[in-house]
From TrEMBL:
Pfam families: PEP_mutase
Superkingdom to which the source organism belongs: Bacteria
Lineage, opening ranks: Bacteria, Pseudomonadati, Pseudomonadota, Betaproteobacteria, Burkholderiales
SUPFAM superfamilies: Phosphoenolpyruvate/pyruvate domain (SSF51621)
CDD domains assigned to the protein according to its UniProt record, in alphabetical order: ICL_PEPM
Protein name: Oxaloacetate decarboxylase
Length: 302
């Protein structure tokens, strides 16, 4: 059997990604998972030394369709992007799977296809379709029993028991924090590994979530959103096991990209922005260019 250990990440499969994610969630220190929406942003997350990444549904919708996070994107489009991202980096990835994209049978397919694509954690929420960003108004949620069915279907569908199922509830905004916590507890009883109470509106509510729930919890850090954005050490002290930063990179790229384009438009050159850009070689090396070249040479005619 050929030894593929020296292949670029895009040409090898790491079968222990699920196990690594589950182990990281059991550690006493909080797991930070920055958002990514394509292979470039995933590479940046991995190369920065983070132990996991978060495939952001809103970021994928914006980058793939030019559309906001309003349920416009299809499962096929999310799956294609998730597969490419998972094949490009060697860190575990959590994928935002919205509502599961249909009824129980659709959700079973969603879990199985994402697991085959190389995703190690799948997030499912209790919104009604079409879903919306968890920090925007107008969200509608399904009844608790329907979401319990979604979680049970997801748990039953996974092939590897180490695949992490994350249950998100958006009940805080419409039903209050106590009701949201009650829902999260029901989802844990249904088999969810991690609980995600979306958009708590104060540090006191964040503390209440962690005092009330025994399962690992997720904090969603959205700059300018409904929830206080706290340092990871403070989130860890509150009791969170996982923190995601869905669109931090997206916002930075939008801001810096706009600034660079203004420099180019006004001066006719990018020199004024050069110190804030990687050079040609740096960009190519981000994608393991020397390794790809060595592999090409190994099998090319001489």
């Amino acid at each position: 059997m050929a030894d593929h250990s020296t292949y670029p990440v895009g040409l090898r499969h790491s079968p222990d990604k699920h196990q690594r994610l589950r182990q990281a969630l059991s550690n006493p220190s909080i797991l930070m998972a920055p958002g990514c929406f394509d292979c470039i942003t995933a590479k940046l997350v991995a190369n920065a030394g983070f132990s996991a990444g978060y495939i952001t549904g809103s970021g994928v919708s914006m980058s793939a369709l030019g559309a906001p996070d309003m349920g416009v994107i299809s499962f096929a489009e999310v799956l294609e992007r998730a597969m490419r991202i998972a094949d490009s980096v060697d860190i575990p990835l959590i994928c935002d799977a919205d509502t599961g994209y249909g009824g129980p049978i659709n959700l079973i397919r969603t879990v199985r296809d994402l697991e085959r694509a190389g995703v190690s954690g799948i997030q499912i929420e209790d919104q009604a379709w079409p879903k919306k960003c968890g920090h925007e108004p107008g969200r509608k949620i399904v009844d608790t029993d329907e979401m319990v069915g979604r979680i049970k279907a997801a748990v039953d569908a996974r092939h590897d028991d180490d695949l992490v199922i994350i249950a998100r509830t958006d009940a805080r905004t419409t039903e209050g924090i106590e009701r949201a916590i009650e829902r999260a507890q029901r989802y844990h009883e249904a088999g969810a590994d991690v609980l995600f109470v979306e958009s708590p509106e104060s540090e006191a509510e964040m503390r209440l979530i962690n005092q009330s729930l025994t399962a690992p919890t997720l904090a969603n850090m959205v700059e300018g959103g409904r929830t206080p954005v706290l340092p990871a050490t403070e989130l860890e002290g509150i009791g969170y096991a996982l923190a995601i930063y869905p669109n931090s990179l997206t916002r930075m790229i939008a801001h810096q990209g706009a600034a660079m384009l203004q420099v180019l438009k006004q001066s006719g050159a990018t020199a004024g922005f050069a110190d804030r850009m990687v050079n040609h070689r740096g960009l190519w090396d981000l994608f393991d260019y020397p390794t790809w070249t060595e592999l090409e040479n190994r099998f090319s005619k001489t």
